[in-house]
Fold this sequence. Notes:
Distance between the termini: 17 Å
Largest sheet: 6 strands, antiparallel
Shape: elongated
Helix content: under 10%
Strand content: 35-45%
CATH topology of the domain at 9-75: SH3 type barrels
Number of strands: 10
Order of helices and strands: EEEEEEEEEE
Amino acid sequence: MQKIRKxxxxxxxxxxxxxxxxxxxxxxxxxxxxxxxxxxxxKHQRPNPMKGLTGGIVDKDMPIHVSNVALFNPQAKKAxxxxxxxxxxxxxxxxxxxxxxxxxx
Length: 105
C-alpha cells in the first residue's frame, strides 16, 4: 500500500525546500512524487505551434523522493509518519503514527 498518494497534503522534511507544504499532483514512479510548488525549476521551452505552446522560460515542478516528504497531520499541525492498520472488515487503512487517527476520514 502506498503511504503517500495523489491528492495528499504533504510537507517537505529535507532538502532545499524544507518546510514547504503542498499537494501531491502525481506519482512519477514508486519512489518519486511531484508536489505543487516544491522543487520548482526554470526550464527553457522551445515553441511548438502544433501543441499551441509558446517558447520561453517556464517554471516547472520536478519530482522529489518520497523519503523527503511526510504527510501533514491537521490535528497536530505538523508532519507525521504513516502506518497501515487492518480493519475488522478486512480492508487496510492508513493511520498517523502519533495519534493513530485515520488519514482518509
